[in-house]
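Below is how a single chain appears once it has passed through the pipeline. First comes the sequence as given, then the structure the pipeline wrote out for it. We keep one example in the README because the format questions we get most often are answered faster by looking than by reading.
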Amino acid sequence: MRRALVLKLFAALLLTSAVASAVLLWRFSEKRVSREAVVEGLKLRVWRARWLVDHMDHGAQFQKPASMSPDMPAEGTERLTVEFVLSNMTAEPKRFMASELSLESEDGRVFEPEWSQWPELELLPGQMIHTLTFFDVPEQDQALLVRWSRQQRQHSLLITYTPGHHSEVEQKRQETPEQWPKTVMWLPAGDAARGKQAFMERFSCVSCHGVPGQAGTQTLGPDLNGIGKAAGQRANGDAAQYLYDSLLEPDKAIAPICVNGQPCATPSGMPPFGSLLSVEDMSDLLAYMMSL
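Resulting structure:
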């Protein structure tokens, strides 16, 4: 009788241990991270993820007007931009919503997308689209997990940490700059209409350069009306390359005239946009400027 009781207790311990191990294994597999996932023929792949540096903060070198960065996150908040490639691998249309994405911290807090290039879209059979979404989260030292939830399934796509201090991120960015192609010919074709929207609104280029062709609207930078032709004259006909280099390295080629006919400041008050733009953003902005 006593032996039977011991055997029952031992069996119960084994069962408890097995259940605990199964729970741990399930939690581990749930958190397993892969940069791409496929749900019902729709594939989502993380192409790049970057913490945003305050690209207008030049310290003592250049004091920025508040109008130059109206959409920067509030102090104490960090912005993660995640770029995705979506592919429809089926023979029928597939809908995707940015709300399927979220950022989850270790303590269980969930952050919804703050902004998405495509809040909702339909991919045709075989279509592939590059898109981006950003999240604003408070500074913290916990790990953050990018999740994709679709059809009651969850996939973990990326683990990251908030950088904590912009100055540290900026130093890291200078040590390991973005790997942009040297020649503009490697970029995909841009869309001038999207580029205009980015220029006027999303990246607020208009706050410094003004509305192209409307004299007196710029505050710091040169009026960019006709910049496609002017850039070609400055760069032996290679206007697109000149503009591309200027966005990546503003000090490389400073325009001769800025506001009120005065020479542009040296070093340039314009920040390097390589850490902020996606490949698609860069292509669209170039297409728009070349059309001016």
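The chain has two domains: 31-175, 184-291.

See the next section for the split statistics.
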